[in-house]
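Submission sheet (multi-component)
Chains listed below:
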Amino acid sequence: MPASSAQVEIKGMQMIRSELIQKIADENPHLFQRDVDRIVSTIFDEITEAMANGNRVELRGFGAFSVKRRDPRIGRNPRTGEAVEVEEKHVPFFKTGKLLRDRLNGN
Amino acid sequence: MAEKTLTRMDLAEAVHSEVGLSRNDSADLVEAVLRHISDALVDGETVKISSFGTFSVREKSARIGRNPKTGEEVPIHPRRVLSFRASHLMKERVAAGNRR
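Outcome: structure written.
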């Protein structure tokens, strides 16, 4: 999705998967790092798997993952201008939960 | 599509059966993952989970909105919104799994 001038991504810090795993490992010294790795992977895989099966994952306060259907349409090859049929497809969608939305805005 | 809704409990159950931790500990770990992601986002960080997707915070500037019922103009204050961009792998798996 192209960013309009009204929305600017906040540049700067980021957290990647390995850093998330490290934070969880630090809080759980009784677990092996490889187990924390499996735990974190299991959680994300389960969410993806649910959506691949057409299901929703609702995590109150955080947000909800669901699948949206995109109708078939006539697309166009941007280089040649040729019309091409684009099949119906399903795409992942995330809606932010109320608590997290409020927290992002300091409430 | 016979749609089902999964919750934290289902994720904890998956951790329990995959890793063998108690259901309580599994639930705590699911919560910890969500808490760390939320905290990083609230701090304005982007959260990149490889092969899953990227959560990022965007700043929306103030604009004049309109109450669709009354037509009345209302100021919309600047705010931060969360956007999620699914990884290619997730997009592929979701598209493939839902294909008829």
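Remark: Chain B has a mean pLDDT of 94.
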